[in-house]
Amino acid sequence: MSEPVEFVRPVPGEDEGAADAVARTAPAAPAEAVGEEGWRRLDPRTLLVTALVLAGVVLGGGVPTAIGMTGRMPLGRALAWVAAGAVLVVGFGLCGEYVRWRRTRYRVGPERAELHTGLFLVKRRSLARERIRSVDLTAHPLLRILGLVKVRIGTGEQSGGESTLELEPVTRAEGERLRTELLARPVSGASGADRDGMLAVLDLRWMRYAPISFLAPVLGGASIGTVLQVSDWFGVQARLFHWADDRFHDTPLGWLIASVVAAAALSGVIGALGLWTEMWWNYRLEREPGATLRVRRGLLTSRSVSIEERRLRGVELVEPLGVRLAGAARLDAVATGLARDEEDEHADHKTLLPAAPREVAEAVAARVLREAVSPTRAARLVRHPRAARGRRLRWALAAALAPVAVLALLGVLLTDVLLRIAAVCAAVTLPLAVLLALDAYRNLGHGLSGGYLLARSGTLRRTTVALQRGGVIGWTVKQSVFQRRAGLLTVTATTAAGEGAYHLRDVARDEGLAFAAEAVPGLLEPFLVRDRPGDPATDGPAASATAVPPPTR
């Protein structure tokens, strides 16, 4: 394998928020400093929220514990022990929360947003306002009932807590005030009609795409595991197996397996629909004054995510296999400063539109990018050479034959049953692997559409990215030994937004280098060597060229 060659240009002012994120340990501030102008407290109802959350936790953990203890002591004594432990947990939790509330202050000044918290270890964190890129509001059911929200202020850096300020909780009105104040930006060159307005709203017909996602079978399998785990907690797992044996004793094995699969599929569909409803109910995508895109969604837990348009570098159409077969796609933003919230797995800050008909996704992409037509629809993508198809067929066949070969070997050594299983696996997986490999090849493509670079790949999860050509800060060219023999290479566009790198996989060598040179003029040309210098046939964007690394010092 050869080492990749990288070509990078600096972009002034891009992603420098970490330099302005300060978190330091200092002695406790004197009491009189707390009353300085502009300092605010968190909402005192945080104590009530903490008490209710802890009560739910101890109730959920205490009931199975008490039931398990009844086998070794009387029920009354078991309940007394559990109640004593619950009181201690809730009491200590409330004491800790009271100290946190008393010792937490925040302030938004003309230049910086500041947060002071802690008792023995005082933390003073400060973010420069010009580096703040996101102010996201989240409220779980308890906070929503009380009219409170959690505010997460961030620079978008991946450096953990040092680049974010979290205020939990404050009133909803205070959260909206902070979001509006911190994301206010001067806007020029855009009319009010173009700047503001609703871009997309929830259509309940989109719910039909939830059951055909990969999440449905995962939830179906998890439901069976949950039933077994809960029955084990309450000591009735053996009774459950005996009941199932009595009910299905005379049922043929095939029907039994089909019934279990059908039950798991039904529970998976119900779970997928429920999760989709929780995540996307009340969905709205709008453009607000100040050139800010705002996504609001959530049934029980409400979420509000803001993306500044000046940080937007493009969009990405995501099409999982089931959703793609139904003619739908999801729309994600390719933007700088979108850090994922590790505490909330549903807080996907980059998703602009859930799975919807592809025409709808492309129309929303055009509105988001302020284009008449979405770049993903306007351009005709260039197909990759047939050698790329051969590589995918070899990978797919190798992946399908590996378990078959293992089963066949074990069948020769142990039992003929494994040989029959290997034959069945081969009959099922080999045609499926070939179909997926051919689909993966058909999905390969790249092109240019105005100011955007397009790249498409994938089969189980096909993605089509439209990336601003001005957002490309470098190119990485990789060529393995096998790619070199086939005349292919992988060209990667490096950017400070989104995933950070977008690939043109297994593109023809000359075509890939020429495409990179045309997409971002002046970036790759100094590292290209013409095959026949001075020959007119090699002039122009389609000329054969080779990338060479810059000289080392």
Q: What does this molecule look like?
A:
Among the domains are: about 55 residues, no CATH class; about 60 residues. Helix content is about 40%, strand content about 25%. It is an alpha+beta fold and about 550 residues long. It has 15 helices and 23 strands. It is flat and about 80 Å long. The longest helix is centred in the first third of the chain and has 28 residues. Helix 6 crosses helix 8.
Order of strands across the widest beta sheet? 8-7-6-12-11-10-9
**Could you describe the largest sheet, including whether it forms a barrel?**
7 strands, antiparallel
Proportion of helical residues: 40-55%
Low-confidence stretches: 11-34, 189-195, 533-553
Backbone shape: flat
- Global mean pLDDT: 83
Strand content: 25-35%
Quantity of strands, as a count: 23
State the helix count.
15
Using brief descriptors, characterize the structure shown.
553 residues, alpha+beta, 15 helices
What's the arrangement of secondary structure elements?
Layout lengths: L4 E4 L13 E5 L19 H24 L5 H28 L2 E4 L3 E6 L4 E7 L5 E6 L1 H6 L1 E7 L9 E8 H11 L9 H4 L1 E5 L13 H19 L3 H11 L5 H28 L3 E5 L3 E6 L4 E7 L3 E9 H5 L2 E8 L15 E7 H12 L5 H4 L7 H28 L2 H28 L1 E5 L2 E6 L3 E8 L3 E7 L2 H6 L1 E8 L5 E8 H11 L8 E3 L14 E3 L6
Antiparallel strand pairs: 1-19, 2-5, 3-4, 4-5, 6-7, 6-12, 7-8, 9-10, 10-11, 11-12, 13-14, 13-18, 14-15, 16-17, 17-18, 19-20, 20-21, 22-23
Helix pairs in contact: 1-2, 6-8, 12-13
